[in-house]
Every structure is written in structure tokens, then in C-alpha cells.
User: Fold these one by one.
Assistant:
Number 1:
Amino acid sequence: MTINPFFHRVLGWLGTLIMAYCIFVIALGLLQRQFMYFPDTAQFDPAEWALKEFELFPVTTDDGLELRSWYVSPAAADKITIVFFQGNAGHLGFRNYKIRPWIDAGYGVLLVGYRGYGNPGEPEEQGLYKDARAAIDALIVRGTPEAGLVFYGESLGTAVAVEMATKYRASALILEAPFTSMVDVGAYHYPMVPVRYMTKDVYDSLSKITDVHMPILLLHGEADEIVPVRLGRKLFAAANEPKQAEFIPEVGHNDIYDFKVQQIILRFIGNLSTSALMEKTP
């Protein structure tokens, strides 16, 4: 039987497309952490980023990594300390504009240094959890009670913050542009790829949020192009009370601080510092 030349060409095109798709999926699977983490590997000191109040805060992880976080103590005993978990890109200094009002208000701040972000090691999910635990444990050893902590996560850091909120009895959890899981984020960006079967670092916050029993503040831009707001809404719906959400119209992933969320954050923390913290601190 003679094959129609046009049909033969179609089969060739189809075979080429299938091969290209398979190569893309394989490459995405092999390089997925390069697509997930974008660390600035250089070491910086806080003073270089207008954070001269901060000291370097060295910690040792369970797997033996020597990491550097940045820390400033609270101005008074009745002020909480905000433990900040950054997103997947850059380094701690890029967050100076977010934390400056907290310092000026007298709060302590611990900027958690991740492996691979100006520190030894390579970032991956379980590793970041170890980094967070090491920093928090070191802070507790210094005398800060768990009730004197508020966990703050931005973007990928929200998953680290949720994980820590299931392990420690902090006073509150603040989530900026959170997601249900990295699988859901991947499926949003690559709808034609079987990401649910190939994702290494899952960061499944949705399955953990029901184990969080502390006040929650969730902030999300409705025009977020990186983490769709529907994922933030779904996570918020699953969270326990008391909880507060601010879904801000026309705001994307990286410009949420342009829209007065700082006042919301300071009001939320201010209420904690005069209620939950004072009740739990001897």
C-alpha cells in the first residue's frame, strides 16, 4: 500500500513534536531545581544593605552545614521577634525595605540564611527545613521563647514558614503570596507536563496548614503572575481560625509592598505583642 505523501509528512511532523516534547520533559525533570531556586551565592554583610543593626548569626544544621543568618534583637522584652523566610531568589539584603519598618517599631528580626544562598550547600526542600530549624533553635537557646516568635514567609518561604508553624508554638504566622504546593504551582506554569509525577521538592503546605494552630495573616495580590491567587485562597480556606486574609486587586507577585500592606502587618503584629506574647511570657 502506498502512503499518501501528505500523510507521510504529517507523521514526520508528529514524530518530531513528540520527540521534542519528550526531550523537554526529561530536561525539565533533570533541571527542575535550577528552575525552582535562583540564589545569589555571594556572601554579604548586613551593613552593605543598610541593615547595620544586624549581626551575623551563625548556626549549624543537623547535616553539618555552617550557615549565616542575620539577626537583630528586639528593643524591649515585650516585643516579639519576626523570623523571616525569604523566597527563592536573591539574598537576604534584597528584603531590607520589608523589614526596616519592623526594626524601627522595635521588633526583633531573624533573617534565616538558606544553604546555597551565600552559604555552603545546595537548596532543596528538606535542606531548607533543616536550615530553618537550626536558626530557630539557636534563637531559642539565646533565650527567646517560642511564644515570642512570629513566622513570616514570602513566596517559596511560605512553605518553610508553614512547616515551622507545625513544629513550634509561635505566636503567629504571616504568609505573603503563598501556595498550596509546588506541584500546583508547577502545573499552573507547565499545564502540558506531568509535574505531579516528577516534582522532587513538593512543599505541600495544603496538607500541613490544618496542623497550624496560631493566628494567621495571609497577603496575596489578585494579579499575581507567579503564584495564582486561587492557590492562596485555597490555602486560606483550609486554615484554622483565627485567620485574616488581604487579597489586593491589581497587585502582582513582587509589588505587594507598594500597596500599604506594611500597615496591615504592623497592626497585626502589634495586637499580638500586647495580647498573645504578654499572656505567654513569664
Number 2:
Amino acid sequence: MKAVIRSTAFVHSVAIAVSLFVIGSVAAQSRKGIELNEIAFTFAMELIKQGQIIADGRGEWTKHRPSADEENDFIRLHGFEQYAKWHLGIDRRFPENSKRRYKFPYGDFKNVHRCGLLAAKARARQYGYEEIVNAAAELDATVKQPN
């Protein structure tokens, strides 16, 4: 009887270990899917150098972030290539002509918003995208702090 109990306990232990491994692998794989959009980083840096910035404060992104309708209008007029430039992250699991591909927006299609950079940095940190955290922090460091 003890042998049956030990055998059952062993099988359950192996099943738990395999489940934890699979969950960890899926989480790591999904994290790998999003990477820094180098073109957007360079574009944002240029906009900041040109003075196309709004040095607003933390928590204002909900008011300044483009709505879904504004995003759709921008895509219709300018295409996904230009839309991508306004997002610090790219999720390569989705096609290029999909809004789902582009993550971590930072501006309103005219200006870089400091609140957008702060929101991108916080969210990237939350999900472990260090490359995006560092990029948003570097861009934020070049924006004048609001008085």
C-alpha cells in the first residue's frame, strides 16, 4: 500500500513540475514576443530635439492618449508604417498591418508626451520589458521636467 501511495505522490509531483515548467516557458515566450521598436525610439528622440514635446506630468496620459477612432483615422491617412513610429514596442507575433502589433504608445501623432513616456516605462517595467523601460527612461531624461 505504501508503494502505491509513493508512486501516486511521485506521479503528482512530476505532473506539477511539468505544469510549472510549461507555464514558465509560455510566460517567457510571450515576453520575448515584444521588443524595442528602434525606429520609434529614434523618431521620438528627433521629435524631442525639434521641440515637439509636451512636458506634462504623471497620470495625464489617459486624457492625452489618442482614442481608437483617432488611431484608425491616423492609420487610414498615414498607414501602419507611420503608426508604428508612435509605439516603443513591437509584438512580432502579430502582422504588420494590425494595431495589436504595436505596444507602448508615447505620443498623440503630433507630439511626444512625457506622461506617455512615463506610462510606457511603468507598464514595461510591470511586464519585464527592460529594453523598453530603458528606452522610455532615456527619452524621458531628454524632456524638460514640468515646473
Number 3:
Amino acid sequence: MIVVTAPTSNIGSQVLENILDSGESIRVIARDPSRMPEQTRKRVEVVEGSHSDLDVVTKAFQGADSVFWLVPADPRAESAEAAYVDFARPGCEAFKSQGVKRVVGISALGRGWPKNAGHVTATLAMDDMIAHTGVSYRALTCPGFIDNMLRQVEVIKSQGMFSWPISGDLKAPTCATRDIASVAARLLLDRSWSGVGSLPILGPEDLSFNDIAQIMSEVLGKPVRFEETAVDALKTRLLSRGMSEGMTQAMINMLVAKNEGMDNREPRTPQSTTPTSFRQWCEEVLKPAVLN
């Protein structure tokens, strides 16, 4: 039995799609099962509720061999620790009480970074908590997602630009969620691994935002430029959209750490180099979104 949390999320839905035809029994935890495609819903067992609820995870993990663990975004949480560590406490209790053997979790690069990096610091603390339950655990440690660029489609369309409070010249890894989901699915279906470890997902190349703008321009057939924005401007914007003070500061702390090179400390290896390039993703995903 494999349990998938957050099955309607970007990554979770792709993980689920990747294992549907495996022949394994699959159970999902969903707060709103109606958001799942009807054909998918018919092929899995659904436990309705949040995986932050002890009763829900205790029921869902009964008889489970492997669990895919992803914490959903909560912009109104009191703090990053509340959003990740506190959210995961019931799950960790259920991993132990229900005898779950293996857990695959979505995590972040940044182990050993000397300063508070907001979301990253809290995510790594969650990893440590999961690891101490006694399960075999693989944390998929990721940089920024290529797919996040879809949040800026409208400004790319209307103004031919995108922005973020990161230096335009800083080359760093970035990865596609499809590749994360592929690695996660492989681990969920593999019963041979054990112990605790991490697996970086670094994409095929390091790119700066200026590199990304150039690739966008070539793929879209129109000029696109990158503009570095001020951290304070982003903070004001996030607060105005209803993000809590604690989560806003966590986001700022993470971005400052990334701008200082946090994601560049992980050595690239054949195992951490995943296939989807930014150019390929632009052709297949961004271009249709911008031109439609």
C-alpha cells in the first residue's frame, strides 16, 4: 500500500499519475477529493481530511508500506516552524504507530547553511523529525521550481518582463516538478532501499535569471527581460495579499539565503542531474501559457 498526501498539488498529482498503473494499492489523503479527476478518484482509496490531523493520518497510514509526504503551502501560518514542523507532528506519530516502512518527502537544499533561511530551515527541521521516527526516509532536496515561473505569466505577456529579489547574474540550479515527481514515484515503488538520506534534484544546468530571460526571449519570439526587485517591495506585496508576518519573514529569509549562494553548495552529480531543461519546459509549458 502506498499513501500519497497532497494529491491535488502540482507535485502530488504528478506523483499519483506516475504510480497509478503500477499495480500497487494506492490511498490518498485529500481535503477536497472533488478536486481530483474523476477517473483518478475511482482508482484509489480516498481518506478525506488534512494530513495534519492525527485521526486522519492514523486511518490513512494503516497497513501502508510507503508514504509520499508533502506539506501544502500555508501563507497564513504563524511561522515557518508552525507550517512545517508542527504540521508534520501528527504524521510522525502515525508513521510510528502504524509501522510505515518508507517515507519520501519534498524538501529543500540548504543543509548546513549557517543562518536562518526561513522555509528551508523549517523544512530541514521537519526532515530531522521524520528521520527520528525510525522510518526509512528519503528527502528530495530541491532548489526553486521552474514551474513557479507560471505565476508571472501575465506580466510576461503584458510587459515582457519578470522579476524577483535575486541577482540577475547569479547562476543556480532549478528543477521541473515533473522530474521531482518522477524520482519520488521511483522511490515509492522501490522496496529495496532503507535508512535515512537525501537526494538532491538539481535539473540539468545552472542558470541565472538573465540566462532565463534570454531563453524565454528566444522561445517566445519576443524580448523578455529580468528585473531584480527590492526585498522590501516584495515584503510589502506579500503582506498586502494576506500572508502572515511570520511567513512573509520566512520567505524573505529564504530569498536572502538563496541570493547569498545557499543553493550553490550542493555538488552536481549524475544522480542529482535531472533531465528537463528550462528551454524544454518553456517550449512545452510556458509558451502555450503565454500565447493562449
Number 4:
Amino acid sequence: MEQTSLSGKLVYGFGDSIVYGHTHPEYCFLRQLSEKYGFRLENYAVNGATVMRSDNHILKEVENAPDVQPDFIVFNGFTNDCYASAEGKIGEISEGFDGPFDDTLFVPGFEKIIKTMKDKYPQAKLIYVAMHRSNARPDMITEKGERVSVQVLMQKLTHEVCAKWGVTVADLWNDSPFDTNLPGMSEKYIIDGAGSHPNEEACREFYVPVVEKKLLE
């Protein structure tokens, strides 16, 4: 275990299976980092959680978490919103910071999560984890008949929202070679060889270095 400024710190995790670890939470990237640096981890992420309001949405995780102030919050979101059915539900970035934020739409819902975290945990440093490029998310056909990659659109918008709100981005999308559209990547780095969930090796090789860098900064 390395003794650094992270030792003994309290880190909360929010989000979906990418943060939780899917079927192997014991080696999710946050658990690997916690064991490496000795910070205390409370991971409230839930498999299948969405940004848009649902029976299992990320806002509920934040609302139900303890009031104890963490030093860091590491979160993600969009994996389970990123489908062709998102057509007409994307929304736009708001002009201000007070809302109201319509969380039946993706972008306002994402802003509402960030605002809620900042209001509830004003002392915490927020790090958003932009997931890797995945071959497991479809294109979306708009009302005009245009084909749009939902993950490209949502990545762009979440990055813009984070810039607006001053949230640090651990950017697997732009700063990592982890791309399951490339031959052999899913078979080697995805749990069960298909889907979106990084296995232990992928967490260690791709997620840990990117998130680690932002935590240490």
C-alpha cells in the first residue's frame, strides 16, 4: 500500500455497473485503488442505474447516501440511458445553476445529479468517469431519419456539463486506448467477452491509471 495524500481519505462511488463492478465488485477499479492507496471506499453504485428518472436511478443513490462528507466522489452515468430509445429524451444544457432540472431527460437529469451532490457534499471533490468506447451501444435514428451514435452524443454532452459545473473528468473516452470496437478487445477485457463491463484486467490496465491520475492531482 502506497502512503500518499489519499491514505485515510473517504471516497464515495455513485453510478451504475461500471463503477459498481457488475458481477465482480471485489475488483472494480475503485476497490483496486482503495487497496493500493488505503482510502476508505463506500461504493453506492448499483447495476443498471440510469441518469434519467427510473425505479433505479443514480439520483436516488445520492439522496439515500449518508450525510457524512466524503473527500472525493467518483461517479459515472449514461451506460443505461445510452440506447436508441433515447431519441427525444436528450434535452439541453441549462443556462444557469438553479434549475429546475427535468430528470425525465438525460442532460437535465445529469445536471440534477451534479447539483444534488454539490449541495449535499460541498466539501467533496467530484470526479466523473467517462467510460471507454464500447461496441455494445447502438446508433439512434432521429425524427429526421439521421443516424446518430448515442454514446458519441452523450459523451460530448456530459463533458460539456462537467465543464460548466467545474467537475473533473477521468476521461477513458479520449485518454485511453480501451475501445471494444477494436478486434479482440471485448474477448480480452470485457466480463464474459461481450457487453460493456470491464473485467479485472481492464480495470487495472485502463480504468485505474486514468482515475488514479485525477485523484492524485
